[in-house]
Amino acid sequence: MKMVRGFISFTVSLVFLLSAFSPAAAAKRVPAASDKNPVVFVHGFTGSSSSFDNMKQWLISQGWPSNYLYAIQYSNTTGSSIDNAYELQMFVKNVLRQTKASKVDIVAHSMGGLSTRYYVKHLEGAQKVDDVVTLGSPHHGTNSSYFGLWTEGAREMVPGSAFLNDLNSVDETPNGSDTSAVIQYTSIYSSADTIINPYTSSIIDGAANVEISGVSHSGLLSDGSVRPLILTGLENGGANTN
């Protein structure tokens, strides 16, 4: 009898363990959707998605799920910001499909801020983006671009280019399609940035423009003084006064 009871006890325990690790049970244990938006990182001229590896780890420490952090790698890192914007559009669609979220936040470095703003202004970004944070982006061009005129990306960043005139026409901070929650913009830039010349080119009319000092162009990606500013921008601390 003791052997029978022992066998029954073992069987019950085994059934419990199997049910606990079944696909159905696992599905019930999936965490609820994050209260944060997925973040899409956009690199700049000759940049790489790996530029944001450290920032991803930092955002995880700030409460972002690791599967809510995505960095795009453009197929042509010196190409047109218009072409890049179309790649960004497809990338965001995939992120939203994977995360089941309705909108993303975007953190863009340098030229990545231009393709981001084009995506918001002319493509689907108006429906898909909540917060935009740019780091040292030449929103009004940079004289450094004259050193790379054989590339389309650099030609578009020449101050007064047709691309920039179009991008900055009418409204530099488009509100998007959701009138109840307009897109919030933050532009963080450094007076020590010698790549964006003049550095004040990073100012966007209508955004929360945050000037810092002592940080290089590439340093904007990793400097500890910049990170709290990024965090504020991602938590609806930007502006849209247009």
UniProtKB/TrEMBL annotation:
Where does the source fall among the domains of life? Bacteria
Q: Which residues form the signal peptide?
A: 1-27
Q: Name one GO biological process term.
A: lipid catabolic process
Q: Which GO terms describe its molecular function?
A: lipase activity
Asked if the record carries the keyword Signal, the reply is yes
InterPro entries assigned? AB_hydrolase_fold, Lipase_EstA/Esterase_EstB
Q: Which UniProt keywords apply?
A: Signal
- Protein name according to UniProt: Triacylglycerol lipase
- Per the UniProt record, the source organism is Mesobacillus boroniphilus
